[in-house]
Amino acid sequence: MKIAFIINDHATEKWNYTTPALGFAAYKRGHDVYFIGVGELSYASKGHLSVRCKTIKDRTFKSEETFFKAVQKEEFTTLSSEDLDVLFLRNNPADEINERDWAYNAAFIFGEIAMSNGVIVLNHPSSLAGAVNKMYFQHFPEIIRPKTIITRDHNEIKEFFKEQKQKMILKPLQGSGGTNVFMMDKKNEHNLSQTIDAICRDGFVIAQEYLTEATGGDTRLFIMNGEPLQVNGQYALMQRVNASGDIRSNIHAGGKPELVKMTDQIMELADIVKPKLVQDGMFLVGIDIVGSKLMEINVFSPGGLNVMGQMYNADFATPVIESIERKVYYKSMYNDYLYNSRLATL
After folding, report:
1. Are strands 2-7 and 86-89 parallel, antiparallel or unpaired?
2. 78 is in which domain, residue-wise?
3. pLDDT tens, 39-97?
4. pLDDT given for residue 248 in this prediction
């Protein structure tokens, strides 16, 4: 199998991220593995995807760290979608905001080209295009979501603040990783207008119900093919505990990962989101849970899989690659009969 991973940039990707872990798992299974930065995508005159990428072959590595650092030192080579079986879109568009705006939607645009060339593209690029901001989350059943409004109107937000008894979360419609997330209450109400203005500079504002359980952080669960990812009874699941004085539990924002047990409540939430994820061809996603509510569904490059693997002494990356291998097999059996969106979650 020839599998390529799209990342934001070779210089900023770190060896302990989830994508290099997936690449290493594929490499150990004997597959040809390629890493492509968003800026290395191009469209060839013959109508196929052509990329500059980095790859490594015929060497043995003991760890993900030595593997990916060796990849980063390699010179660029050229690859065509005609030579690929799978393209895994693992870049984070939110990281490009205000930095490289041209790269914001590049991966799923070029992913559509690869798909038309017969490459299996994960997650399904058309669905990713519709999920490029947090509005995608609002299409899931209301019963599992916190009360939310999305607007640029100061008066609407202030009225919502009153309805929520002067305690709510404000964050941008676009973005991830805990950037520009604020908890507003009576103590900082005098900064409400200023905070709204700051978020409005980048677009729409999400005003969201504050969940008291959020003081203990949130729970990140990986879902693959619509089902919670597990290995030998261990789920790809962790509690992300907020850093002191911070409402954000993202690991990049200082959140601390801790072991957590699977519960019936978490399983129920996972079951409720399954139909839409499967319908949309969302192969591998991360859902963030607080209490009985979902706070976010991460469909682009959910992280933490390697952290969970260390915590539980479990290899969560290999089952992901095994699932992709089955998709390649199914495609070979059915030729062009199966749509990419359906194949993505088989």
Report:
1. parallel
2. 2-122
3. 999 998 888 899 999 999 999 999 999 999 999 999 999 999 999 999 999 999 888 87
4. 46
Alpha-carbon distance of 117 to 24, in angstroms, equals 26
Q: Say how many domains are in the chain.
A: 3
Assess whether 46 and 60 both reside in one domain. yes
CATH of the domain at 198: 3.30.1490.20
The mean per-residue pLDDT over the stretch 147-173 comes to: 93
Give yes or no for a cis peptide into 155 (omega within 30° of 0): no
Distance of CA 117 to the CA centre of its chain: 24
- Asked whether residue 166 falls in the same domain as residue 84, the answer is no
Q: What is the 3-state secondary structure (H, E, C) of 107-169?
A: HHHHHHHHHHCCCEEECCHHHHHHCCCHHHHHHCCHHHCCCEEEECCHHHHHHHHHHCCCEEE
165 Rama sector, left if φ>0, alpha if ψ -120 to 50, beta otherwise = left
137 is a domain residue: no
Output the CA torsion sign for 188, 193, 197, 199: positive
Would you say residue 159 lies in a domain? yes
Percent of the chain with pLDDT over 70: 95
